[in-house]
Amino acid sequence: MDNRRNKIGFTIFIVLLFILGIGGFFAMKFLTATEEEQTTFFKSTPKEVDNRIDKSKDYVYYDGENVVLENLDISYKNININLSAGKTISETLNSEIQNLKGTVKYIKDVTIPSDAEYEENEQGIYSLDYREYVEYDYENYITILVKDSTYNVIDGSIPIAIKAYVFDKNKDIVITENDLLNIYKTSMDAIKEKVRVKLNAEQETGDGEPLYNINETLNNFKCALTINKIGKLEINYIVSSTKTDFYDKIVIE
């Protein structure tokens, strides 16, 4: 009987030592952690809520793709935002794609100046408007960046419009531009000033004249606010140029 009690007592003693050892390890880890690490020490990872309408599909997927200019990777495709908050937006974007399809013009139907240099394509297309989708995924946020451009065989691609949609997939809601400005504690005026500084620092010249129309860029500021893949606020915008307009971006630190 005494021997059995001794074994039970020894087992309890070992278990207590194990518990004390584990507890001491985490206590020391917490005490030696930085303030930021202590703040996140007991912070649990938010459980992801699956709000997808179709559980067999990604949050964003495409279908009905029609390749128009293979050499330039230009195609028309339907986007599907697999959230209730994105249903109407998907319908709007796909309706816009139908309008873009109607912009295709063929070389055989266009009079091109005899002195114009251009490269023909297998499809015989002279010009068209097209769209590019760019996705960013960060934690519970999904961003869809929409970039519209016009193309012709003489001038190449020129940006014409830009916009973005940011979703909180856990809450199944759209994050508005004002929401983003508040979340990142900034303003559109502050963003414009950062863009002005960036463009001034990168300004180039052609024939002795500045290539970037900075004032025109900011006075008619075409931009889209996104949450990039590392959780930073990223501003994508169109730069007006005396040569060819182009897309640019800046990350707000």
Can you describe what's shown?
It is a single chain. By secondary structure, this protein is α+β, with helices and mostly antiparallel strands. The chain is 32% helix and 34% strand. The strands form four sheets. It has a five-stranded antiparallel sheet with strand order 3-4-5-6-7. The protein has a three-stranded antiparallel sheet with strand order 10-11-12, with helices on one face. It has a two-stranded antiparallel ribbon with strand order 1-2. The longest helix has 30 residues, at 2-31. The model is unreliable at 35-45 (pLDDT under 50).
- Class computed from helices, strands and strand pairing: alpha+beta
Let me know the largest β-sheet. 5 strands, antiparallel
Name the shape in a single word.
flat
Count of distinct strands:
12
Mean pLDDT, nearest integer?
87
Q: Radius of gyration from the CA trace? A: 28 Å
DSSP helix count?
Answer: 6
Oligomer: single chain
The residue fraction in helices comes out at 25-40%
Q: Kindly, what is the distance between the CA atoms of the first and last residues, rounded to a whole number of angstroms?
A: 71 Å
Low-confidence spans:
35-45
Strand ordering within the main sheet: 3-4-5-6-7
Q: How much strand content do the residues show? A: 25-35%
Query: Topology as H/E string?
Result: HHEEHEEEEEHHEEHEEE
